[in-house]
UniProtKB/TrEMBL annotation:
<feature type="domain" description="Large ribosomal subunit protein uL10-like insertion">
    <location>
        <begin position="126"/>
        <end position="195"/>
    </location>
</feature>
<feature type="region of interest" description="Disordered">
    <location>
        <begin position="1"/>
        <end position="21"/>
    </location>
</feature>
<comment type="subunit">
    <text>Associates with the pre-60S ribosomal particle.</text>
</comment>
<dbReference type="GO" id="GO:0005730">
    <property type="term" value="C:nucleolus"/>
</dbReference>
<dbReference type="InterPro" id="IPR051742">
    <property type="entry name" value="Ribosome_Assembly_uL10"/>
</dbReference>
<comment type="function">
    <text>Component of the ribosome assembly machinery. Nuclear paralog of the ribosomal protein P0, it binds pre-60S subunits at an early stage of assembly in the nucleolus, and is replaced by P0 in cytoplasmic pre-60S subunits and mature 80S ribosomes.</text>
</comment>
<comment type="function">
    <text>Ribosomal protein P0 is the functional equivalent of E.coli protein L10.</text>
</comment>
<keyword id="KW-0690">Ribosome biogenesis</keyword>
<dbReference type="GO" id="GO:0000027">
    <property type="term" value="P:ribosomal large subunit assembly"/>
</dbReference>
<dbReference type="GO" id="GO:0005737">
    <property type="term" value="C:cytoplasm"/>
</dbReference>
<dbReference type="InterPro" id="IPR001790">
    <property type="entry name" value="Ribosomal_uL10"/>
</dbReference>
<dbReference type="Pfam" id="PF17777">
    <property type="entry name" value="RL10P_insert"/>
</dbReference>
<keyword id="KW-0963">Cytoplasm</keyword>
<dbReference type="GO" id="GO:0006364">
    <property type="term" value="P:rRNA processing"/>
</dbReference>
<dbReference type="GO" id="GO:0030687">
    <property type="term" value="C:preribosome, large subunit precursor"/>
</dbReference>
<dbReference type="InterPro" id="IPR040637">
    <property type="entry name" value="Ribosomal_uL10-like_insert"/>
</dbReference>
<keyword id="KW-0539">Nucleus</keyword>
Length: 232
């Protein structure tokens, strides 16, 4: 009888080795960059759009370097205590790598960096699960933005519509989304059809480390106290 494939042993050593090597490569890249650039920032992001972020990163590649990925791996690269930090003060910036965040290393001045990040704002269509930033309600009556061929699709999205003399008509008021509530798949589709871009992709500076002195460090968000991070 042939051996069952279910009972065939599977070696995971290569997979584990590849994962470890990948993490080590990131750690080494961050440490090399830390020696190359004069200052380092932790930034948070909202509604990430990969293509737009890539374009932003390309604009700054001659003077700066971005790192996104596992916060724990980036923390290991910088050091999480006085004993293992690679440069004085980096343990402080390491502790702010939480949630949707990344590292920005640069030789640009602080004024230039703030201007770049403050001005970066991209509007896009909100995705399913995103929190609606406003209430969108359609009033009863003709929906001139939709053709008659779309009437069956709109009904599938839960909209109370009908055809009236070849035109799509809303037979009662319809709330597409409520402010502060997650978008359903249907709501996200309707907003896209309406051309309403409720999602804003933004980058927000959290803190800054500089090689000046013995490792200059500054927190930009007043709500984030260093003592709270240290005690975590």
């Amino acid at each position: 009888m042939p051996k069952s494939k279910r009972n065939r042993p599977v070696t995971l050593s290569k997979t584990k080795k590849k994962g470890r090597e990948h993490k080590e490569a990131i750690v080494n890249s961050i440490r090399e960059a830390a020696d190359k650039y004069a200052s380092m920032y932790v930034f948070a992001f909202e509604n990430m759009r990969n293509l737009k972020f890539k374009e932003f990163r390309e604009q700054l590649k001659s003077s700066s370097r971005f790192f996104l990925g596992s916060n724990k791996v980036m923390q290991v690269a910088l050091g999480r205590s006085v004993a293992d930090e690679m440069r004085p003060g980096l343990r402080k910036i390491s502790k702010f790598l939480r949630g949707d965040s990344g590292l920005f290393l640069t030789n640009l001045s602080e004024e230039e960096v703030k201007k770049l990040f403050d001005s970066f704002e991209v509007y896009d269509f909100a995705r399913t699960g995103s929190i609606a930033t406003e209430k969108v309600e359609l009033k009863e009556g003709p929906l001139t933005e939709f053709t008659h061929e779309m009437e069956p699709f709109l009904r599938k999205q839960g909209m109370p519509v009908r055809l009236n003399k070849g035109a799509v008509e809303l037979i009662s008021d319809f709330v597409v989304c409520d402010e502060g509530k997650p978008l359903s798949p249907e709501s996200a589709r309707i907003l896209r059809l309406l051309g309403m871009k409720l999602a804003v992709f933004k980058l927000r500076l959290i803190c800054r480390w500089s090689e000046e002195g013995d490792g200059d460090f500054e927190v930009y968000n007043a709500e984030l106290e260093e003592s709270d991070i240290e005690s975590s």
